Amino acid sequence: MQLSKNIQNAIFFWMMGISLLVWVLLLMNPGNIMTIEHCKVPTLALCSGSETVSEATSLQMLLNLNPLTSQLMGWGVMIIAMMLPKLIIPIESIYLQSLKRYRFRFALLFVLGYLSSWMFAGIFMTAIILGLNLWFPLSYIPAIGVGLVAAIWHCSPIKQRFLNLGHNHWNLPAFGFPAFRAVFFYGIMHGVWCVGAGWVLMLFPMLLPEGHYLAMFAVTFMMISEHLEHPRPLRWYFDLRLRLLKIMIDLAKMKLVRTCLYDFR
Hints:
The protein has helices at residues 5-28, 55-65, 68-83, 88-97, 103-135, 141-155, 157-165, 177-206, 212-228, 243-264, and strands at residues 47-48, 51-52. By secondary structure, the chain is mainly alpha-helical. The chain has a two-stranded antiparallel ribbon. A hairpin with a 2-residue loop joins β1 (47-48) and β2. α5 packs parallel to α8 (177-206). Mean pLDDT is 83; it is low at 38-53.
């Protein structure tokens, strides 16, 4: 049994459309929610006038400039923009198993469960981002360090374990409270596997003094690509997992062949 092409297209349209709209919001960056503001003195302890303040005062100044609620809001917006395209296949699986009158509600519950996992992780990751920016204001050192960790994690069997778990599609009850509970928990667990696979990649763009958005595009591309890969045995892999790029190249070739055949006719 398969979903109709119209339903598949509708799911794709809504998920990609919402993601693109949120990307526009990110690029507008209202309230500087996607950047860390610093006191304009490039020293380890931030400065107030001519007096060097203590580390605790520096932290307070950084939090005043970058309220935690604002940073978490930015984190949530970033997650929606970057992650919604990854949920197209799981939502199709949910639609396939659900009664028609429950489909939208189940999909919404799944997305909410998924986002709740990333938002819970965001509390700790935002704290890490603010802490590293306190110790290394306007420096590329944290981003370089996290990039090295990301490269090692990218190839590790532990990450592959999380990626494999992300391919699990649950058998859901058809209706009633057990169905709503199961689909919400499915979203939470799918989010947990995604956090496990991509936590360090998500830190990288937020630690860059400049070039946040270019890095976010690159990370989004990589995370969607590895989500499209088939499950693999748990061992070290030294490859970039650029399946999405391969698909795009194949589609371009098909388009070129069709154009050539049409011209030949």
